[in-house]
From TrEMBL:
InterPro entries, per the entry: Glutamyl_endopeptidase, Peptidase_S1_PA, Peptidase_S1_PA_chymotrypsin
Keywords for this protein: Hydrolase, Signal
Signal peptide (from-to): 1-39
Molecular function in Gene Ontology: hydrolase activity
Region named Disordered: 41-66, 120-141
The EC number(s) this enzyme carries: 3.4.21.-
Protein name: Trypsin-like serine peptidase
Length: 407
């Protein structure tokens, strides 16, 4: 068993990836900076990005970075002038930023062009063992496989909160799935996105991923891979590209998370605060797509849940990462260690790339709410498991919300 890891691709000239806490201590990311940059690859044309609040702009449209911020980043070996020109591809230990204060995610406008987004799905993930006989605690029998079904297009009309997450890491471009959630500090104007911890941070042996960007209703019309090769960006990203401005995951994931065996899986969740690539339009992400899901941190125990629906963009075979799919099943219990919280588990055929996708069930008020996210599953792709969201998840969620209260 292992996390449903993001799918990797090492594409010549475009390699890179993005690195994908509790109430007592949460891990955070610093500022997103809008930079004028040329994206990687011979066919990608850079464009001037709108500066964020931390970035100045001269009369000749050159971007300026405040000296204190520039100096602080240089303390960690990060030169933004070099970063925007490709230094983000340097993944030695000194530049693979691990701690909260070390995370940076400057907007590089045009980096995630249609080709790069489409090609981020090519490489499948590594096989994992389906044997969980060594698990402790309470584990129900393995659920019967449930075949994932295509979400009816346009996706925005049926799962408006769902989208696809892109990022870069040492082995290449990667993908996950994610969900727009409500922000209690900014009602009706949320810029918060829920995903898996392993979609933003590599866990105990790595650090934060880079170039994290969220695309709501990716490939909204459900075009085939062949059709997408000639599709304009408006078809692929109809509601724009939203870059991670801040990210937090659990302390447990950072300390214990690993690529195999389910280490840290019970705490494998993360929250992003995002900003539009093209600069502020005056509308939040929630206003732009017209919806956001509440998060339920006290979901009923498994026996009381009739069903949960997991949504995602599976990219490992037999899928290609371009279509939104769903699985609906009555959940069972999965316990990886006796000390960790019990996870939810459902039958589902979705594969790598579906990680981070939201699990929706009836909340305490009877209305749809996000109650978990895809974390782990076997190579046989017969089931998925996700964390049960408790005080640690609420701590991450509340911290991100409070950071941007009133903004």
């Amino acid at each position: 068993m292992r996390p449903i890891r993001p799918v990797l691709t090492a594409r010549p000239g475009r390699s890179g990836r993005r690195l994908p806490s509790s109430v007592l201590a949460v891990a955070a990311v610093t500022a997103v900076l809008a930079l004028t940059a040329t994206a990687c690859g011979p066919s990608e044309d850079g464009a001037n990005a709108e500066p964020s609040n931390s970035v100045g702009q001269t009369s000749d449209d050159k971007i300026t970075i405040p000296d204190d911020l520039r100096d602080r980043l240089k303390e960690h070996g990060v030169d933004l002038d070099k970063w925007k020109n490709g230094e983000w591809k340097n993944w030695d230990k000194d530049t693979w930023l691990r701690e909260a204060k070390d995370f940076i995610n400057p907007i590089i406008e045009g980096l995630w062009d249609p080709d790069r987004m489409r090609d981020a799905d090519k490489a499948p993930e590594q096989p994992v063992d389906n044997d969980i006989s060594g698990d402790k605690g309470v584990t129900d029998p393995t659920p019967a496989p449930v075949r994932a079904t295509n979400v009816q297009s346009p996706y925005h009309g049926n799962a408006a909160e769902s989208g696809k997450l892109f990022f870069d890491g040492p082995e290449g471009s990667m993908v996950c799935s994610a969900t727009v959630v409500k922000d209690p500090a900014n009602p009706g104007k949320s810029n918060m996105v829920w995903t898996a911890g392993h979609c933003v941070h590599a866990g105990k042996k790595g650090g934060w991923y880079r170039n994290i960007a969220f695309v709501p209703s990716y490939n909204n019309s459900g075009l085939s891979l062949a059709e997408l090769k000639n599709a304009p960006k408006e078809k692929i990203a109809p509601y724009g590209v939203w870059w991670g401005q801040w990210a937090q995951t659990s302390d447990q994931w950072i300390a214990d998370g690993g690529p195999t065996g389910g280490q840290g899986a019970a705490y494998d969740f993360a929250v992003l605060h995002v900003a539009p690539e093209k600069g502020s339009t005056g509308k939040s992400l929630e206003e732009t797509i017209g919806s956001a899901l509440p998060v339920e941190f006290n979901a009923p125990a498994v026996p009381k849940v009739d069903n949960m629906t997991a949504t995602g963009f599976p990219a490992a075979p037999p899928y290609d990462g371009q279509k939104m799919l769903q699985c609906k099943d009555k959940p069972g219990r999965l316990s990886l260690t006796e000390a960790d919280p019990t996870m939810y588990r459902i039958g589902c055929s979705m594969t790598g790339g579906s990680s981070g996708g939201g699990w929706v069930a009836a909340g305490q008020d009877g209305k749809p709410a996000l109650v978990s996210n895809t974390s782990i599953g076997p190579v046989t792709a017969g089931w998925l498991a996700g964390p049960r969201l408790g005080k640690e998840a609420k701590g991450v969620y509340d911290a991100v919300s409070k950071k941007y209260a009133g903004q």
